Records
---
Amino acid sequence: MGLRFLTIFILLLLPCGYGATEARGGEILDYTLRVSFDIPASRISGLAKIPVQSGQEIKLNKGTLQLLDIRLDGKKIDFPRHDQIVRIFPSRQGVMEIRYAGTFNFPKPPEGTLEQGAMNVPSDVVDGRGIFLAGMWYPQPDQMCNYHLTATLPEGYEAISEAETIRKSTNDGQTIFSFTFPHPLDSIHLSATNRYTIVQDHFNDIQILAYFFHEDARLAQTYIQNTKRYLRLYENLIGRYPYKRFSIVENFLPTGYSMPTYTLLGKEVVRLPFIVETSLGHEILHQWFGNLVYVNTEKGNWSEGLTTYLADHLYEEQKGLGFQYRKDLLIDYQSYVNDKNEFPLKDFQGRTDFASKAIGYGKAAMVFHMLKTLIGERAFYASLKYFTAEMRFKKASWEDLRRAFEKNSAKDLSWFFNQWIDGRGLPELRVEDVKIKPREGKFEVHLVITQKKGVYEADLPVVFYSGAGKTRNLFHIDKEKNSLRVLLDDIPSRLVIDEDYDLARRLTPGEFPPVIARLIGDEEKMIVLPTSRAGVYERVIDTFRKSGATVRESKDITDADLRSASLIILGAQNPLAERLYGTIKEEGGFTITIKEDPWNSRKVVGIIQAQSKEETDAALAKIFHYGRYTRLSFDHGRNVLRQVAASGRGLAKDLVKEPIAVDPAKAKSLPEVIDHVAAKKIIYAGEIHDRFSHHVVQLEIIKNLHRTGRKVAIGMEMFQRPVQKILDDYVAGKVEERDFLKKSEYFRRWGFDFNLYRPILQFARSEHIPVVALNIPKEIVDKVARSGLESLTGEEKKDVPTGMDFSDAAYKERLAKVFQEHESLRDRPFDFFYQAQILWDEAMSESIDTFLREQPGYQMVVLAGNGHLAHGSGIPQRTMRRNGYDYAVVLNDVEIEKDVATYVVYPGVVEMEGSPKLMVSLREEDGKVTIEGFSAGSVSQKAGLQVGDTILALDQTPIQSVDDARIDLLSRKKGEKVRVKILRKNSITGDKELEFEVALQ
């Protein structure tokens, strides 16, 4: 009972006839209906007969029908002909006869509207394809009736309606069908066509019939055999099938209806191979829930959730995938339901949009799952058997269900139903604190679970993982802050809360993948126009704009926009797509890819690309039926690819880092490592900048590759792009080291002791190995770290790479930890720090790619900090995104982690004769270098220098910048004595030039 429709792809099937009010005073009318048809004219003619009592109000909804005549025992009754609801008060007892007519053409569905989970299927059609009547095709009373239907059709037609028995007769080239259903109904339905082949079979004493179009008759036996399987399943679970017959009926419209004694499936649906494994069983189960026990929709529609749970969910559970199905329900809920459209289950009457479906089907299914877990499987199914027996052919509510479950479980479930049926929303859980301490040879775990957005009472499953396996515990929570304790035999390395999704709850960010549903369900959406070929996306723009999305050009999108709205980016080469995710590969057909918004994890970005307007028009409407997917591709409207992004299972928290074991017997020497990575196009050699041993390893890699005759280039994080010319001149031997350091501003822009890198650069100079400055100007990175990318001027933005990918969530998480560990950074927004880091990485990646494209015969050794290379997140994967070149990562002195690098080298300490020091801090201003302070035990302070002295020269070398001083010291040795000439100001005796001899430290 209850009209509802089935999309071809999301097959959530409902019984027909929902929505009628409870019969007044329990009255049930006898309603005899005779209909005939003029099919070419799409016209129906009918005669309805209703026995009435004196003074009894009869209220009829005529819809679009034309009421021709109403008589009581042959005498005309006046009635308001223009009112849709006709009220009649018979003056005496008798039989009221209503003659009527109506025309039902197939209306063209509206275009350019955002799909809300329902296809535009007309409720009543009469035309050459056949007859489909499920709406106001007869004057409908506002109460339940015992219907007696007779339909006259052209010869060759077969008809189906709610019926325990169907009688056929012929008269003058017409076929007359009489339908008998001995139970009260809200409404009746009729389908007919001249295209059917009928196949019959039996299951026990139940007659099974398949009404299939001639061209699909081969499918009949498959449907019949699976029908037997489902009848056997559900008779065991909830009791005997309630009728004498069940029919599977093919329809010319894309329907998926369930009426007492039959199901009506569209032709596109029955041809899909998976329907017999999914939706057919759902339809059959509705024969019990909705068609045997009716739904009192005024008190909440329970049938959809229960049928979803015991059909769609049960089939996945039987395959071991019940947890994933439940997670998908929660993904839908979180995607479509918000504070504005959320309502309690007791108010759900029927599906009207994605949000109502997520509540009435999804949340309700989760409630039944929690109920089964609470009272046990045996009591759960005993309750359903009792419920269907007690409420057969009656309208049932959530209250009737509660009484059945309480009776068979001997539990007071009022709190459960009050919380989950009468209340709104879902709990939001967080692990606030976990402590582990030894106790009597075991380990006591204390964890604090908090609830956000309301307090719920529930049993919370928690799994503790250790080297010995896993231990499952159930904790009862009922407060905003819940302190829980458990004693375990082994120290747990990890805990996971609700990993099987047994609790209806809000998902944490790590469990919530970027999917199409999140884009559709977001109230704040923004369309980002392509830079060209906008006509290709005309329907996308129109569809989403009509749903409230704003339309902007990519150049106008600010960081604030990225945080406030989910985006629909049109075109793979859209500048905003490149700005967020780097270069995106162009594809044919029609593709939609959903990514997490890097600036707001609660938002998503949908990148849509299409080869033509025709591809867009053929595919767009279909994406709304694939809400649980991250990526879809279509070819001329046919789905050819669907993927879901990986996400976590359960609310997980690492407690103790899993130990990693290394087999020393398999350890390699550095030459072996170099030999193994030598064939890679790019070799990334990491460093901690001030560890000379790391630079020795880097130099060994370069030397070994060079000895084999390979054309090697060196990419260096330490130099910025504007100094490439002077760097080239130094390597070519055109300038000396002093000029090179001065003009490259090495000490100002990098600052680490040049002796750390000197051997590498000297080797490159001696062997004429190209050295590539990878970095962009330090000023730009610093500015972004302070104020964000949007703060850059137009001129500064010229140095920003054309494509930057902000979507690496694991990298972002690692950077967040680094950010939190540095007190000096906390006065800045993390977003700006993150933008600066990605800018830094992408700029170096772009420099590598540019060189290798211009010099394809070279391979490159890239020297950069370990943090830019670990796990491939910083530079390596970004460069591979640009050019696809294979790479190896060799890191020095990092903690062993899974996939941290290709190799980790532990070189030990290598002493370096660093530059000697004056042990002063200097300030440079207007060509003068002034002493600001001294380090502890400073040799310069002991020699007599003072704060405020201006250094004029070291021996005969003039000092006009800090770089001058550092360059001069490079050529000296520790212990060497240097004459420091200074200018000391004195307001009384006047300024004096003085000289001091300092033994360098």
Note: Residues 13 and 512 are 26 Å apart (CA to CA).
---
Amino acid sequence: MDSLIVLKTQGIYGLKPRFQNVLRPFARILDAAGIRANQVTVFTCAMSILLGLLLVNRVNARGLFLFVPIWLLIRMALNAVDGVLARDFDQKSNLGTYLNELGDAVSDVCCYLPFAYLTEFEPLWIGAVIVLAVISELAGVTGPLAGGSRRYDGPMGKSDRAFVFGALALWVGIGGHLVPWASNVIPRVLVILLAFTIFLRVRNGLAEIDDSFSEVVQVSTPEIRTAQESSFETHDNTSLFYRYWPPLDGSCDRAIILLHRGHEHSGRLQHVVEELDLPDFALFAPDARGHGRSVLSDGNSPTLGTFVKDVDAFVHHVSNTHGIPIENIAVVSHSVGSVLAATWAHDYAPKIRCMVLTAPAFKVKLYVPFARAALKLLHIMIGEFHVNSYVKPQVLTHDPERIASYKSDPLIKGPISVRVLLGLYDASDRIVADAAAIQVPTQLLISGSDWVVHRKPQLKFFERLGTSVKEKHLFDGFYHDVLGEKDRHLPIEKVRGFIVTMFAGPSQELQLFDDDKAGFTKLEFDALNQPLPAMSAKSLGFELTKLGLKTGGRLSDGIRLGLKTGFDSGSTLDYVYRNHASGITPIGKLIDWCYLHCTGWRGIRRRKRNVIKALLRSISVLRENGMPVRIVDIAAGHGRYVLEALDKDRVSVEEVLLRDYSEINVQLGSTLVRERKLEGTVRFERGDAFNEASLAEIPPRQTLGVVSGLYELFPENEPVRNSLAGLANAIEAGGFLVYTGQPFHPQLEMIARTLPSHRGHQPWIMRRRTQAEMDHLVEGAGFRKIEQWIDDKGLFTVSIAQRIGA
């Protein structure tokens, strides 16, 4: 019955989805071979042109017409395949849209024109058929321009024409001859059917557009929820605006945080609040800085990492202000907001109940070739600037009411910071590649006809997600604004069901203590320990890099020091902290400058600044709580970051104990203490940071422990757990621990293959710990994380955890 309805409304074309299902495995093979949808489209058009030229020039060789039905069948298959490649394998493009429509028109002309040269037919009528065929396709593609959909109404669509002309070509090819009345009637009937097809496409398209303005989907009648307006101070004391919808039942023990897409603001999420119909949840939605009513006071565009930190600060504000535990909070986000949510889940490892990512903008469609590279070059050359968004409301949703409200909304911001756009790309690349680190239960909603972002990174992200609780849903025909589409009740139901299910039982308990034995970072670590094939290009490249370091690299003082003491030694870190390029000859100084400004060392210096910030924050809170400030750093290196913190707040600190396993570091650190005249406050001694008993016996009881850049160097978790257990015994209840992590590094293999460590000049091979794993180890020792910072590249984290009382 369904097939009959399809045939009546769309002709043979209506069976295309089934045809595509049959050809989907073939499309998968083409995608794996690197063949693109546009290449298939161009090939199809080119073959139609060649066939048409052949038949026109050899019209008397009637047997050649047998190629027409064969080719029309192949052409139909290739048209189906390029659609599958574009839709299912994220190969859609504006160029592809043009190629599809223009290629079909050219192919039709070339395949049907030879019939005008046959003596049976009148050229004028065949020409009329061809012209009306092109007009009928124009009538179909005009639908989206008028706010409707692409029309495929019959009775004489592309596939129907192919069937008729294929049958005629088969008859001609086998030597058949048409009687005069048939050759006169057939073209005229085709003209009538094509004219009727044009009429239907125009009429039904107009009806669809008219209906869309009056159609309202009513799946329930939820109560209107009125937003309260408020603001909070984020991590850098910037005031940001947000809306708050209290629960209708008066309780306030669980919440949903909504994150809007780029350019928009929290006010446009009112309908989501109502349509979710979750009366026992409090809902919150901030305006991202620079959006809506969160105005940038200084006019400077923040980095993407600042936006992510804002999300972290807002969640803690909601939790602390309304007394809602973090594990009773869910996040629902859209587009750029989904990238922020995913990045936050990766970098900060929050223990929220779940998150819903709708149409995450992991890769924005810029359409202009090499646009990303050009923007990056311009940003380097001229600094920060803004570009206007190409996105129009008509490509966001089919809902005319949403389109109209978007056009009239004065708070929607069109321009976007290039710094933010490039940061969005960089963060997305990192998060998609390392999605296995994310442990938050996740629902992913994908729009089937997204003109704004690519689908393939979304699918890769989902496949790599580390959480065992995950689900994805694809909504065919939906534009980018999934939760603002005409049929949005469909995804809204999925979101509601997921959240209700996640809150039906207790929050998940992670067990990450053994990730050093079986986790995905262990597999990565094992791969780095395996030698590369001797003559492989990668192996030869790394050997050349090592040769360069040992020859010309020695002109750099920093590289020479790293080769002598290890690139992970305290001496190297202290050199990096000083950040003063020096070397033998100006060339050596230039090499040293490049060395000091590589990604990893810039991240290390940012980590030092964040450690100092964490120390000062902890000292301040200890004083506010009436507790003494006694600091112990169990692997201080030269102790530079602690000493610099004391330069900013020396009065509040009673005692500082700096320890390190290296006698050289102890000696050089003691020299720095004397230079700063801190002998009365700071003492340096040799100590083993992994000796639990030694740490537990440190007198007197400490209130602020520090461990920076140590655990990242050791792949096994047992010594780290011993060290943390010793610190837990050394630090008073209510005291703090400042600790660092390295959840990501883009140069792990280069470091492992080329740089020696401080341990007998063995290769410096690191096992990353995800932030979730690092926090799990700290919490297992009796601490609770309360604050965190991370650099914009996502390399190094600095966290504060509070010692929980026994």
Note: The CA atoms of residues 757 and 764 lie 5 Å apart.
---
Amino acid sequence: MKKTSVSLDLEGTTLTLETGELAVQTTASVLATMGETVVLVTVVEGGKSDLDYFPLSVEYGERLYAGGKIKGSRWVKREGRPSDEAILAGRLIDRSIRPLFPKAFKNDVQVIVTVLSVDGENEADIVALNGVSAALAVSRIPWNGPIGAVRVGFVKENGNGEFLINHGPVEAEFSELDIVVSQTKDKTVMLEAGALEISEDKLVEAVKKAHVQTAKIIATIEDLVKKAGSKKLEVSEDALLHEATSVIDKSYKEDVQNLIESRVNKEGGGNETEDLIGKIYENQKMANPDSALDKKTIAKAVEYVMFKLIKKSVLEKKKRVDGRKMDEIRPINIRVGFLPRTHGSALFERGITQALSIVTLGSPRMEQLIESAEGEETKRYIHHYSGLPYSFGQTGRVGTPSRREIGHGALAERALLAVIPKQEEFPYTIRVVSEVLSQNGSSSMASTCGSTLALMDAGVPIKKPVAGISIGMMSDEKNYELLTDIIGLEDFSGDMDFKVAGTDTGVTAIQLDVKIPGISVEQIKKILEQSKIARLEILAKIKKVMPESRTNLSKYAPKVEIVKIPVGKIGEVIGPGGKVIKNIIATTGAQVEVEDDGSVAISGVSEEAVEKAVTWIKSLVREVTAGEVFEGEVKRILPFGAFVEMLPGKEGMVHVSKMSAEFVKDPNDVVKIGQKVKVRVAEIDDQGRINLSMLFGEDAEKSDRPRGAAERRPGGFQNRGERDFSPRPPRPQSEHPLAQQFRRERSSVSSSDWRKKPGIRPAARPGFKDRKPHY
């Protein structure tokens, strides 16, 4: 296969798309490169599927070697299950491409993205999105693309502001907006955003800015298709489905309408759909025994007619399935402090959608460590979403979180991240879990509302409450209607689910899913305006129940304090082999963690234990000066003095000469271990040792005054006159023959050899003639 490549410039960075060289057995493959970030996209079409839905799967694989990393685990070095970030990137791609496949196309399609290299500047998810668009466009798979995708940021500057395209992590630190936009030539297909209370007008402007860049990407991909594109597969309508739809439209429309009402009101035993399908199947078999219609086809036809009736009612009669107005929110019920032993909890109900959110506070060491090709990072605010089968009134598999649950949790986390206090203000790791007990539309936004209340109930000083709402849409070729707070049936039968969360100041998160080939900028503007009205209404109800966060934490929450110490003092807090810090933990019962920047996190269930540990650490790094007075405790007694702990963990030595104005022979005569004594810092020597004194006033002055050697001796030597330090005369040498012989022999032999010489040393010593040798 011939290698084909196209490139374009995106705000100073080159995007290159290549096909025909790698993964040659796939239906299509594209190597997408931006900067030094390289992503391989493969697409495989697996033939006709027996499933009654479109079996599209998107897998996003991030390899640690892409950033020159090896997995930190000691035992497992191979990448395991996809990280939450990889799953979210896969969902981003899925939601961007799925609406553009023909409804009648039911072949297996698998998209696999492999991140091969990352440069830390160009985000791999954007490169992958454009690579997938190119691969589908050049493949034989029928698809109404291509699309282009960019990331847009916004930085305030001189009161105005500047929009950024595909900004890197450095710019992201200053950006108030992070939005990924996927677009066709004239419509927006997917939006995913987090923001710092940005206005609706700025969001609309960001979408417009994105369209300028995505148009360039689409033109480049179309150029690639001209050079290397394949002929698309033909898609034929399902004749049996068309027949079944005609039968139901003609004879069972009223039954379908009754089915809609039973689903809305949740009446009956939940088998109404199966009963209707069985009834239609039996009647068709009786009317025409040779009919090829089966229950599976009839079920699809019933759903199709049901959704068509719901949409027609909204567009023609302005009537929603549950009787509400187009902009009406379902009844809201709120309860805070729902659980007795948790750190914070709240139950948020909107209609029959119920979200129970629970907050848990932990010490800074409980942060989540995230390992990726870009390196390691930590998260101190974590939001998890759980929606088990019973929340739909169904049975099903219970195991690891689904991709939907991970996506909903990430959306709620992003919505609240803008109002979470910084660690300097609130030094806790925060985990929120939303247990969705009943689902009937927009459970992720109910989780956002419930989590806001739970955080306030826990005493987390969030900047402002956050609320979320979902806006749906019913449309045909000419008209459309926007629906506030959609329920499940409206979600399934509608064309869009546009979730918007924010404060009374601005938007903090948005997520757009569509089932049609996109929405216009004008529609986005109206949706944001309608969502703001609904959001403010929900916020008013939240503030009525919880005007602000509680001032006190739960008595079951740990107590956490952060102490900043000089980096040079870290060793004093840790001690040799961790001796000091281990002693602090064992003695106080508090947990102590020291960071490289000098931040010391102290946590514990008991406030007294935390306070004691904080005092201890502060005393260890405190600079003691000469002249300070302390009330200390005698810890050790030695022959020359006693060691007194005048601050927690900091000792000084009182010499015997500083214990009393009188002579002290034994320190035990003055002090006992454990005794409280008043001490004064006499001096700090050049090695940093603290010398203490128990003398004060005139005694201290006399003790501190320099004295001569004679004065320092007991009794003194004042009356003995001056000492003579002149050299002494040499001692006269003996003239004894043996002494002379000894001197001669000693001078001729080295010291080491002399010691080994037998007999001479004892014999040569005058005055010891009668003593026997030692050896």
Note: The radius of gyration is 41 Å.
---
Amino acid sequence: MNRPVIRYRLLRSFVLIILTAVAGTGLAQPVDVLQSTGREILGYADRMSVPPGETVRFMISSRQPQYQAELVRLIHGDPDPRGPGFKAEPVDAPFAGTYPGRVQTWNPGSYIEVPHDPVLSLESSLTLAAWIYPTTPRKGVQGLIAKWDAEQGGYGLFIDQEGTVSLWLSAGSGDIYRISAGVPLFSTPPYHNSFPLPGVNWYFVAAVFDASNQTVRLYQLPSSSLPGGHQPARVEVKTEATQVGSNDHPLLIAAYRSGPGPRSSPSGNFNGKIDRPVIFNRALGEDEIYSLQNGSIGSDSSELVASWDFSIDISTSIVRDASPNRLDGRAVNMPMRGVTGHNWTGKEFDFKRAPEQYGAIYFHDDDLRDAGWTADFEYRIPAGLRSAIYAVKVCTKKDEDYIPFFVPPSPNARRSPIAYLVPTFTYLAYANIGNGCSECRQAESLGLYSRHSDGSGVAYSSRLRPILDMRPKAITTWSAGGRTPRHFSADLYLTDWLEAKGFTYDVITDHDLHREGKSLLAHYRVVITGSHPEYVSEAMLDALQSYIADGGRLMYMAGNGFYWVTSLSEDAPHFIEIRRWGGTQGWEAAPGEYYHNTSGELGGLWRRRGRPPQLLVGIGFTSQGFDRNAPFQRETGSFDPRASFIFEGIDPFEEIGAFPSIGIGYGAAGDEIDRIEPGLGTPPAALHLARAYDFSDYYQPSVEEVMEVRRGIGGGDDPLVRSDIIYFKNQREGAVFAAGSISWFECLSHNNYDNNVSRVTENVLRKFLEADVLP
């Protein structure tokens, strides 16, 4: 049915109150992460890796009027009394002192902003149209195409709080008109893998205002003919509107400005896809609307105000207008690009090969590119500062936060023989993971294991916001034992062990390796990875492969490494991108959306691109479980004379890691584990040193290993569920020692570092450092 025109004649001072009431939940609220997490102070840095001579800035939000700031070098991040305890060394820094506190917020939600241009001031007839794929049409008012200011005047195509397409017109004199199509848009419940199904729930929507006869026509035309819910709507009503007021605000796509003035915050962020939005400066006729739906814009370019083509410059935040007016805009807060449009046929999966079928952008009301906080202070890294892991400690009387950053060596500095390759891509991927850290669940700032408010998976993760689980003392809680230090906090176990054993080392990061490649690794005799280097780029894999081939030594004592194809955006290098499919994953990318928009490469597992981790380190991901660990049993290869240096000082019948760990219970093998697989690239000459097995049925084979549902695929029965330790070398004396367990690091400090996990690690590291020729 048709809903009547809603007309308001109000005093200007009352207009915004009414607008707020009408918008309902569509109005955006700035996120106060302190309030949502119950914290008093939090912050972030604008860079992760900062070499000497360069500057890092720190952004702080504090509920207290004052806070203290100081610099520390992080050594051990876990306060558990079963281990060495928290260790941090104070470092003199010029910024140390007292600062005034203030609360800082951010405004999530993606949209497109098109700068004001006089051609957008449509004071008479107009036509607005687009293809849309709404995923939460009932969440409140959502902007589609809006140049809106209730007081000055404006226009906009919206989804109203009833979930139906609506045209808003303001004459700027207190007269506001809202005309609704009257039929709610349909949205299927989220599929459990949370991707939108191509060809389902697309609508062509259009609004026509004809000032000459004071009529409005609205079209809400579903592309699908599936029965139930997908009802078309065509509305034509008379209005009292004779003109539209103008404003000098930017035009927004997928949001609108709810307040007066061009600096008011965007509100009503749209959830879903928008494809081919267009604006005309006249009222199109009935036949023209249906021609527009079928892809024909018409030949009179003077009447076409804008026609945005989202298939152009997909790798960037630039949004191109294909009309002669060239009203280009920019995408704000990282909406998802490289996604299928309303006309995707399913015949091509690479947007570069059929860009005309990828003319959509997927917007979310919780997207975030940059929290946008103001810097409180900065720090220029002095030339003499050692390469290490540092943090700015900020504290009030009742709360504290540690903001980590990494100092690699200066390009001209003398290098240590050991490089600790810190997996910063993994830290970004797991940022604020909801199923581990209770505070992170409330952080309202998503990582790559999160889902958006509409149920779809998060494909981008930015460093420019507080990351609550990238902290010392951060303890996740998903294990049966109730505590599991992971990622950043767990990687400090190795830092502590290196310090305790007297090794000198440099700290380098994924970001450094991606940028500098093989030339960065060439300085080092040995490279040691973190405990979970799961997310890696092609440049990183190429560098590591060349490093080993040319005689470098790599120690990988970790699990689930070198797994997901990861891209670092050249347009905005502070965030990474993934597209999940074909692996063990928290969500799955939609069909046709497996290619990264930032790099153009095929996403998913490196294994799916012919580069399984076994090709690099001899072992690869096979299972995961978080209830209990297991010790390693020595295999035949451990008694080979070539492996004698590895087990020097260890009894031949001794299990490796058969003691309590600081993490998941008992044993050095667990959490996520890797195995040998010759068919995936384990070198034939690799020595199989040890194996852990007899895991619980919590440990299941990784999804990519299971071809069919069957009995006996739990940890107690399936031979694929095991953790292996191997050693191999090549003809140029490049070598790999790999222990396939995230929990390996958790055992290093047991018994004051006097244990066989520590001994094996030290034996290998010293031999890799000292021997020109390896056994």
Note: The chain has two domains: 108-363, 376-770.
